[in-house]
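Name: Nfed family protein
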Amino acid sequence: MYLQRIKALLYAFLILWWPASVVQAEKNNAPNQTVPVISISGAIGPAVGDYVTKQIQLANQQPNVPALMITIDTPGGLVSSLRDINQTILASNIPILCLVHPQGARAASAGTFILYACHIAAMAPATTLGAATLVSIGGGGSPNQPQEKPQTPTAMEKKVLNDSIAYIRSLAQLRGRNAEWAESAVRDAATLSASEAKEKNVINLIADSPEQLLLLLDGLTIKVGDSQATLALSSANLEPRKPDWRNQFMSTITNPNIAYLLLIIGFYGLLLEFYSPGFGVAGVVGAICLLVATYAFQMLPVNYVGVGLIVLGLGLLVAESLVPSFGILGFGGVVAFVLGSIFLFDSDIPELRISMSLIYSIAFTSAAFVMFVLRRVLQLRKSQVVSGIEDLIGSDAVVENTFEQCGYVRVNGERWAAQGDEHYSAGEVVVIEDIEGLTLRIKKQQGG
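Structure predicted for Nfed family protein:
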Protein backbone atom coordinates (compact mmCIF):
# COMPACT_ATOMS: atom_id res chain seq x y z
CA MET A 1 0.00 0.00 0.00
CA TYR A 2 2.82 2.32 0.90
CA LEU A 3 4.60 1.58 -2.41
CA GLN A 4 1.44 2.23 -4.38
CA ARG A 5 1.10 5.66 -2.83
CA ILE A 6 4.72 6.48 -3.71
CA LYS A 7 4.15 5.38 -7.32
CA ALA A 8 1.00 7.50 -7.55
CA LEU A 9 2.89 10.55 -6.32
CA LEU A 10 5.67 9.96 -8.87
CA TYR A 11 3.17 9.61 -11.71
CA ALA A 12 1.44 12.84 -10.65
CA PHE A 13 4.77 14.68 -10.50
CA LEU A 14 5.74 13.48 -13.99
CA ILE A 15 2.35 14.48 -15.41
CA LEU A 16 2.70 18.02 -14.00
CA TRP A 17 6.43 18.48 -14.75
CA TRP A 18 6.61 17.05 -18.29
CA PRO A 19 4.54 19.72 -20.23
CA ALA A 20 6.35 22.56 -18.49
CA SER A 21 9.76 21.09 -19.35
CA VAL A 22 8.73 20.58 -22.97
CA VAL A 23 7.59 24.20 -23.30
CA GLN A 24 10.79 25.44 -21.69
CA ALA A 25 12.89 23.28 -24.03
CA GLU A 26 11.01 24.60 -27.04
CA LYS A 27 11.70 28.16 -25.87
CA ASN A 28 15.37 27.42 -25.37
CA ASN A 29 15.67 25.77 -28.79
CA ALA A 30 13.68 28.44 -30.63
CA PRO A 31 15.94 30.48 -32.94
CA ASN A 32 16.46 34.12 -32.07
CA GLN A 33 14.61 36.63 -34.23
CA THR A 34 16.66 39.34 -35.88
CA VAL A 35 15.55 42.72 -37.20
CA PRO A 36 18.12 44.07 -39.70
CA VAL A 37 18.76 47.81 -39.46
CA ILE A 38 19.94 49.70 -42.54
CA SER A 39 20.78 53.39 -42.55
CA ILE A 40 20.18 56.07 -45.18
CA SER A 41 22.42 59.02 -44.37
CA GLY A 42 23.02 61.80 -46.87
CA ALA A 43 21.80 62.18 -50.42
CA ILE A 44 19.99 59.23 -51.99
CA GLY A 45 22.00 58.22 -55.04
CA PRO A 46 22.63 55.04 -57.05
CA ALA A 47 24.87 53.51 -54.37
CA VAL A 48 22.29 54.07 -51.61
CA GLY A 49 19.52 52.72 -53.83
CA ASP A 50 21.48 49.56 -54.59
CA TYR A 51 22.37 49.07 -50.90
CA VAL A 52 18.79 49.46 -49.63
CA THR A 53 17.10 47.32 -52.29
CA LYS A 54 19.56 44.44 -51.89
CA GLN A 55 19.26 44.45 -48.10
CA ILE A 56 15.46 44.35 -48.29
CA GLN A 57 15.56 41.49 -50.79
CA LEU A 58 18.07 39.62 -48.60
CA ALA A 59 15.89 40.07 -45.49
CA ASN A 60 12.89 38.62 -47.34
CA GLN A 61 14.89 35.48 -48.12
CA GLN A 62 16.22 34.88 -44.59
CA PRO A 63 14.34 32.95 -41.86
CA ASN A 64 13.56 34.40 -38.44
CA VAL A 65 13.46 37.97 -39.77
CA PRO A 66 10.08 39.39 -38.72
CA ALA A 67 10.76 42.91 -40.02
CA LEU A 68 13.41 45.27 -41.37
CA MET A 69 14.11 48.76 -40.05
CA ILE A 70 15.38 51.76 -42.04
CA THR A 71 16.81 54.74 -40.16
CA ILE A 72 16.79 57.81 -42.36
CA ASP A 73 18.45 61.23 -42.38
CA THR A 74 18.49 62.66 -45.90
CA PRO A 75 18.01 65.95 -47.76
CA GLY A 76 16.61 64.04 -50.76
CA GLY A 77 18.12 62.50 -53.85
CA LEU A 78 17.58 61.12 -57.31
CA VAL A 79 14.07 60.19 -58.43
CA SER A 80 15.33 57.03 -60.13
CA SER A 81 16.94 55.74 -56.92
CA LEU A 82 13.84 56.70 -54.91
CA ARG A 83 11.57 54.72 -57.26
CA ASP A 84 13.81 51.65 -57.03
CA ILE A 85 13.75 51.75 -53.22
CA ASN A 86 9.99 52.22 -52.98
CA GLN A 87 9.25 49.44 -55.47
CA THR A 88 11.30 47.06 -53.34
CA ILE A 89 9.52 48.23 -50.15
CA LEU A 90 6.08 47.74 -51.69
CA ALA A 91 7.01 44.24 -52.90
CA SER A 92 8.38 43.16 -49.50
CA ASN A 93 6.75 40.21 -47.71
CA ILE A 94 7.95 41.45 -44.31
CA PRO A 95 7.08 44.78 -42.70
CA ILE A 96 9.46 47.66 -43.38
CA LEU A 97 9.80 50.00 -40.41
CA CYS A 98 11.08 53.50 -41.14
CA LEU A 99 12.42 55.77 -38.40
CA VAL A 100 13.68 59.33 -38.91
CA HIS A 101 16.63 59.16 -36.55
CA PRO A 102 18.68 60.48 -34.71
CA GLN A 103 17.35 63.68 -33.20
CA GLY A 104 17.92 66.57 -35.57
CA ALA A 105 17.59 64.32 -38.64
CA ARG A 106 15.24 65.00 -41.53
CA ALA A 107 13.37 63.10 -44.20
CA ALA A 108 13.16 65.79 -46.85
CA SER A 109 12.17 65.46 -50.49
CA ALA A 110 12.78 61.83 -51.51
CA GLY A 111 12.94 60.87 -47.83
CA THR A 112 9.27 61.84 -47.43
CA PHE A 113 8.28 59.49 -50.26
CA ILE A 114 10.20 56.62 -48.64
CA LEU A 115 8.58 57.33 -45.26
CA TYR A 116 5.13 57.15 -46.85
CA ALA A 117 5.95 53.89 -48.63
CA CYS A 118 7.01 52.00 -45.48
CA HIS A 119 4.53 49.87 -43.51
CA ILE A 120 5.36 51.77 -40.31
CA ALA A 121 6.47 55.42 -40.30
CA ALA A 122 8.05 56.79 -37.14
CA MET A 123 10.08 59.82 -36.15
CA ALA A 124 12.38 60.67 -33.28
CA PRO A 125 11.71 63.91 -31.38
CA ALA A 126 13.21 67.06 -32.94
CA THR A 127 13.14 65.63 -36.47
CA THR A 128 11.35 66.93 -39.56
CA LEU A 129 9.94 65.73 -42.85
CA GLY A 130 8.47 67.29 -45.98
CA ALA A 131 9.65 69.77 -48.62
CA ALA A 132 9.03 67.12 -51.27
CA THR A 133 8.64 69.50 -54.21
CA LEU A 134 10.56 68.30 -57.25
CA VAL A 135 12.80 70.97 -58.81
CA SER A 136 13.04 71.24 -62.58
CA ILE A 137 16.26 70.02 -64.14
CA GLY A 138 18.75 72.74 -64.84
CA GLY A 139 17.71 75.01 -62.00
CA GLY A 140 16.25 78.44 -62.31
CA GLY A 141 18.87 80.98 -61.31
CA SER A 142 20.42 82.04 -58.08
CA PRO A 143 18.36 81.54 -54.94
CA ASN A 144 19.57 84.91 -53.66
CA GLN A 145 17.92 86.79 -56.50
CA PRO A 146 14.26 87.62 -55.76
CA GLN A 147 11.81 86.98 -58.56
CA GLU A 148 9.47 89.87 -59.27
CA LYS A 149 6.87 87.73 -61.03
CA PRO A 150 6.17 84.03 -60.50
CA GLN A 151 7.07 82.05 -63.56
CA THR A 152 4.30 80.06 -65.23
CA PRO A 153 5.22 76.36 -65.14
CA THR A 154 5.72 74.71 -68.48
CA ALA A 155 3.71 71.73 -69.68
CA MET A 156 6.55 69.37 -68.77
CA GLU A 157 6.85 70.83 -65.26
CA LYS A 158 3.11 70.37 -64.76
CA LYS A 159 3.37 66.75 -65.85
CA VAL A 160 6.22 66.06 -63.44
CA LEU A 161 4.44 67.82 -60.56
CA ASN A 162 1.11 66.06 -61.11
CA ASP A 163 2.84 62.70 -61.46
CA SER A 164 4.65 63.23 -58.15
CA ILE A 165 1.42 64.29 -56.41
CA ALA A 166 -0.42 61.23 -57.68
CA TYR A 167 2.47 59.01 -56.61
CA ILE A 168 2.65 60.24 -53.00
CA ARG A 169 -1.17 60.25 -52.67
CA SER A 170 -1.28 56.63 -53.78
CA LEU A 171 1.31 55.74 -51.12
CA ALA A 172 -0.67 57.63 -48.45
CA GLN A 173 -3.91 55.86 -49.39
CA LEU A 174 -2.16 52.47 -49.38
CA ARG A 175 -0.83 52.98 -45.84
CA GLY A 176 -3.91 54.83 -44.52
CA ARG A 177 -2.12 58.10 -43.86
CA ASN A 178 -2.87 61.78 -44.51
CA ALA A 179 -3.05 62.16 -48.30
CA GLU A 180 -3.97 65.87 -48.24
CA TRP A 181 -0.83 66.87 -46.38
CA ALA A 182 1.23 64.59 -48.62
CA GLU A 183 -0.01 66.56 -51.62
CA SER A 184 0.82 69.89 -49.96
CA ALA A 185 4.35 68.58 -49.21
CA VAL A 186 4.86 68.12 -52.95
CA ARG A 187 2.90 71.08 -54.26
CA ASP A 188 3.81 73.70 -51.61
CA ALA A 189 6.97 72.18 -50.04
CA ALA A 190 5.18 71.90 -46.67
CA THR A 191 7.13 70.55 -43.67
CA LEU A 192 6.21 69.11 -40.27
CA SER A 193 7.87 68.35 -36.96
CA ALA A 194 7.55 64.92 -35.37
CA SER A 195 4.71 65.87 -33.03
CA GLU A 196 2.81 67.69 -35.80
CA ALA A 197 3.24 64.70 -38.11
CA LYS A 198 1.77 62.40 -35.42
CA GLU A 199 -1.22 64.69 -34.90
CA LYS A 200 -1.94 64.91 -38.64
CA ASN A 201 -1.69 61.12 -39.15
CA VAL A 202 1.38 61.45 -41.34
CA ILE A 203 3.35 58.99 -39.18
CA ASN A 204 2.33 56.16 -36.86
CA LEU A 205 4.62 56.63 -33.88
CA ILE A 206 7.21 58.81 -32.16
CA ALA A 207 10.18 56.81 -30.85
CA ASP A 208 13.45 57.95 -29.32
CA SER A 209 15.48 55.03 -30.68
CA PRO A 210 15.21 51.85 -32.78
CA GLU A 211 15.01 49.78 -29.57
CA GLN A 212 12.05 51.79 -28.30
CA LEU A 213 10.33 51.48 -31.67
CA LEU A 214 10.47 47.69 -31.43
CA LEU A 215 8.90 47.77 -27.96
CA LEU A 216 6.12 50.11 -29.12
CA LEU A 217 5.31 47.90 -32.13
CA ASP A 218 5.28 44.58 -30.26
CA GLY A 219 1.84 42.97 -30.62
CA LEU A 220 0.62 45.46 -33.26
CA THR A 221 -1.31 44.02 -36.21
CA ILE A 222 -0.60 45.60 -39.58
CA LYS A 223 -1.40 44.85 -43.22
CA VAL A 224 1.43 43.32 -45.23
CA GLY A 225 0.44 42.62 -48.79
CA ASP A 226 -3.03 41.08 -48.81
CA SER A 227 -2.86 39.65 -45.28
CA GLN A 228 -2.69 40.84 -41.70
CA ALA A 229 0.45 40.24 -39.64
CA THR A 230 0.92 40.58 -35.88
CA LEU A 231 4.35 41.86 -34.92
CA ALA A 232 6.18 39.89 -32.21
CA LEU A 233 9.27 42.00 -31.61
CA SER A 234 9.78 41.99 -27.84
CA SER A 235 12.58 39.40 -28.02
CA ALA A 236 13.97 40.42 -31.41
CA ASN A 237 17.57 41.60 -31.72
CA LEU A 238 18.60 44.57 -33.82
CA GLU A 239 21.36 43.80 -36.32
CA PRO A 240 22.97 46.73 -38.16
CA ARG A 241 23.69 45.91 -41.81
CA LYS A 242 26.56 47.96 -43.22
CA PRO A 243 27.21 48.48 -46.96
CA ASP A 244 29.66 45.97 -48.45
CA TRP A 245 32.82 46.93 -50.36
CA ARG A 246 30.93 47.11 -53.66
CA ASN A 247 28.41 49.63 -52.29
CA GLN A 248 31.21 51.64 -50.70
CA PHE A 249 33.09 51.69 -54.01
CA MET A 250 29.94 52.79 -55.88
CA SER A 251 29.30 55.44 -53.25
CA THR A 252 32.83 56.78 -53.71
CA ILE A 253 32.89 56.96 -57.50
CA THR A 254 29.33 58.34 -57.75
CA ASN A 255 30.33 61.25 -55.56
CA PRO A 256 30.20 64.11 -58.11
CA ASN A 257 33.56 65.50 -56.95
CA ILE A 258 35.28 62.11 -57.32
CA ALA A 259 33.69 61.42 -60.72
CA TYR A 260 34.76 64.90 -61.86
CA LEU A 261 38.37 64.33 -60.74
CA LEU A 262 38.43 60.93 -62.47
CA LEU A 263 37.34 62.61 -65.72
CA ILE A 264 40.12 65.20 -65.49
CA ILE A 265 42.78 62.64 -64.54
CA GLY A 266 41.67 60.36 -67.37
CA PHE A 267 41.88 63.14 -69.95
CA TYR A 268 45.32 64.33 -68.88
CA GLY A 269 46.61 60.76 -68.52
CA LEU A 270 45.71 59.86 -72.10
CA LEU A 271 47.06 63.20 -73.35
CA LEU A 272 50.38 62.64 -71.58
CA GLU A 273 50.63 59.15 -73.04
CA PHE A 274 50.06 60.43 -76.59
CA TYR A 275 52.70 63.15 -76.31
CA SER A 276 55.36 61.18 -74.45
CA PRO A 277 55.04 57.46 -75.25
CA GLY A 278 56.86 55.33 -72.71
CA PHE A 279 55.96 52.43 -70.47
CA GLY A 280 52.23 53.21 -70.78
CA VAL A 281 51.63 53.99 -67.09
CA ALA A 282 49.96 57.33 -67.81
CA GLY A 283 47.85 55.82 -70.58
CA VAL A 284 46.70 52.86 -68.46
CA VAL A 285 45.83 55.06 -65.48
CA GLY A 286 44.10 57.58 -67.74
CA ALA A 287 42.03 54.93 -69.53
CA ILE A 288 40.93 53.32 -66.23
CA CYS A 289 39.97 56.67 -64.70
CA LEU A 290 38.07 57.68 -67.83
CA LEU A 291 36.10 54.41 -67.93
CA VAL A 292 35.27 54.58 -64.22
CA ALA A 293 34.16 58.21 -64.64
CA THR A 294 31.94 57.19 -67.56
CA TYR A 295 30.36 54.44 -65.42
CA ALA A 296 29.70 56.95 -62.64
CA PHE A 297 28.26 59.54 -65.03
CA GLN A 298 25.66 57.15 -66.42
CA MET A 299 24.23 56.79 -62.88
CA LEU A 300 24.25 60.54 -62.11
CA PRO A 301 22.09 63.39 -63.48
CA VAL A 302 24.70 64.52 -65.99
CA ASN A 303 24.21 67.46 -68.36
CA TYR A 304 26.19 66.47 -71.45
CA VAL A 305 26.47 70.10 -72.54
CA GLY A 306 28.63 70.50 -69.45
CA VAL A 307 30.74 67.51 -70.50
CA GLY A 308 31.19 69.06 -73.95
CA LEU A 309 32.28 72.40 -72.47
CA ILE A 310 34.81 70.67 -70.21
CA VAL A 311 36.30 68.74 -73.14
CA LEU A 312 36.38 71.93 -75.23
CA GLY A 313 38.06 73.85 -72.41
CA LEU A 314 40.73 71.20 -71.88
CA GLY A 315 41.29 71.03 -75.63
CA LEU A 316 41.81 74.78 -75.84
CA LEU A 317 44.25 74.68 -72.93
CA VAL A 318 46.24 71.96 -74.67
CA ALA A 319 46.14 73.91 -77.95
CA GLU A 320 47.50 76.97 -76.15
CA SER A 321 50.48 74.97 -74.93
CA LEU A 322 51.18 73.62 -78.42
CA VAL A 323 50.35 76.64 -80.60
CA PRO A 324 50.78 79.72 -78.39
CA SER A 325 48.20 82.41 -79.16
CA PHE A 326 49.38 84.78 -76.41
CA GLY A 327 46.52 83.75 -74.08
CA ILE A 328 43.49 83.82 -76.40
CA LEU A 329 43.03 80.04 -76.57
CA GLY A 330 44.07 79.63 -72.93
CA PHE A 331 41.59 82.22 -71.62
CA GLY A 332 38.79 80.71 -73.71
CA GLY A 333 39.73 77.25 -72.41
CA VAL A 334 39.54 78.34 -68.76
CA VAL A 335 36.13 79.99 -69.30
CA ALA A 336 34.73 76.92 -71.11
CA PHE A 337 36.17 74.63 -68.45
CA VAL A 338 34.60 76.55 -65.53
CA LEU A 339 31.19 76.85 -67.23
CA GLY A 340 31.18 73.15 -68.13
CA SER A 341 32.08 72.18 -64.57
CA ILE A 342 29.21 74.28 -63.17
CA PHE A 343 26.68 72.85 -65.66
CA LEU A 344 27.95 69.27 -65.38
CA PHE A 345 25.36 67.94 -62.88
CA ASP A 346 21.64 68.84 -62.83
CA SER A 347 20.68 68.83 -59.17
CA ASP A 348 19.54 71.26 -56.49
CA ILE A 349 20.97 69.04 -53.75
CA PRO A 350 24.45 70.22 -52.67
CA GLU A 351 25.62 66.63 -52.19
CA LEU A 352 24.95 65.96 -55.89
CA ARG A 353 26.84 69.00 -57.19
CA ILE A 354 30.53 69.67 -57.71
CA SER A 355 32.23 71.78 -55.06
CA MET A 356 32.93 75.27 -56.39
CA SER A 357 36.25 75.35 -54.55
CA LEU A 358 37.30 72.22 -56.46
CA ILE A 359 36.25 73.78 -59.78
CA TYR A 360 38.18 76.97 -59.07
CA SER A 361 41.24 75.03 -57.88
CA ILE A 362 41.48 72.99 -61.07
CA ALA A 363 40.72 76.03 -63.24
CA PHE A 364 43.42 78.05 -61.45
CA THR A 365 45.93 75.21 -61.87
CA SER A 366 45.15 74.94 -65.58
CA ALA A 367 45.42 78.71 -66.04
CA ALA A 368 48.74 78.73 -64.16
CA PHE A 369 50.01 76.00 -66.46
CA VAL A 370 49.04 78.06 -69.53
CA MET A 371 50.75 81.15 -68.11
CA PHE A 372 53.89 79.11 -67.43
CA VAL A 373 53.92 77.86 -71.03
CA LEU A 374 53.44 81.38 -72.40
CA ARG A 375 56.23 82.74 -70.22
CA ARG A 376 58.60 80.04 -71.35
CA VAL A 377 57.74 80.69 -74.99
CA LEU A 378 58.47 84.40 -74.62
CA GLN A 379 61.75 83.68 -72.84
CA LEU A 380 62.84 81.28 -75.56
CA ARG A 381 62.03 83.79 -78.27
CA LYS A 382 64.20 86.43 -76.60
CA SER A 383 67.07 84.14 -75.63
CA GLN A 384 70.14 83.45 -77.74
CA VAL A 385 70.16 80.36 -79.89
CA VAL A 386 72.23 77.65 -78.24
CA SER A 387 72.00 74.97 -80.91
CA GLY A 388 72.15 74.72 -84.71
CA ILE A 389 74.52 76.32 -87.20
CA GLU A 390 73.42 79.82 -86.11
CA ASP A 391 75.29 79.17 -82.88
CA LEU A 392 78.58 79.22 -84.87
CA ILE A 393 78.30 82.95 -85.56
CA GLY A 394 80.81 84.78 -83.37
CA SER A 395 82.75 81.65 -82.43
CA ASP A 396 86.39 80.92 -83.27
CA ALA A 397 87.75 78.76 -86.10
CA VAL A 398 91.29 77.51 -86.91
CA VAL A 399 92.71 77.89 -90.44
CA GLU A 400 93.61 74.45 -91.81
CA ASN A 401 96.00 75.51 -94.62
CA THR A 402 97.36 78.89 -95.66
CA PHE A 403 95.00 80.57 -98.16
CA GLU A 404 93.89 83.91 -99.45
CA GLN A 405 90.13 84.66 -99.67
CA CYS A 406 89.02 81.00 -100.00
CA GLY A 407 90.10 77.95 -98.06
CA TYR A 408 89.17 75.58 -95.20
CA VAL A 409 88.89 76.00 -91.45
CA ARG A 410 88.11 73.67 -88.55
CA VAL A 411 85.30 74.40 -86.09
CA ASN A 412 84.59 72.05 -83.19
CA GLY A 413 86.41 69.27 -85.01
CA GLU A 414 84.46 69.83 -88.26
CA ARG A 415 85.97 70.96 -91.60
CA TRP A 416 84.17 73.92 -93.15
CA ALA A 417 84.71 75.91 -96.37
CA ALA A 418 85.57 79.52 -95.54
CA GLN A 419 85.83 82.86 -97.32
CA GLY A 420 87.54 86.06 -96.22
CA ASP A 421 88.96 89.30 -97.57
CA GLU A 422 92.51 88.85 -96.28
CA HIS A 423 95.47 86.45 -96.21
CA TYR A 424 95.17 83.65 -93.60
CA SER A 425 98.01 81.48 -92.33
CA ALA A 426 97.79 77.81 -91.28
CA GLY A 427 96.89 77.51 -87.58
CA GLU A 428 95.64 81.07 -87.34
CA VAL A 429 92.56 81.61 -85.19
CA VAL A 430 89.81 83.58 -86.97
CA VAL A 431 86.28 84.67 -86.10
CA ILE A 432 83.11 83.50 -87.90
CA GLU A 433 80.98 86.53 -88.75
CA ASP A 434 78.29 84.94 -90.96
CA ILE A 435 77.13 81.73 -92.67
CA GLU A 436 76.22 81.61 -96.35
CA GLY A 437 74.85 78.18 -97.14
CA LEU A 438 77.66 75.78 -96.26
CA THR A 439 80.39 78.42 -96.37
CA LEU A 440 81.60 80.45 -93.42
CA ARG A 441 82.41 84.14 -93.71
CA ILE A 442 85.49 84.76 -91.55
CA LYS A 443 87.63 87.66 -90.39
CA LYS A 444 90.80 88.10 -88.41
CA GLN A 445 90.56 88.52 -84.66
CA GLN A 446 90.83 92.08 -83.45
CA GLY A 447 94.40 92.81 -82.51
CA GLY A 448 95.54 89.56 -84.19
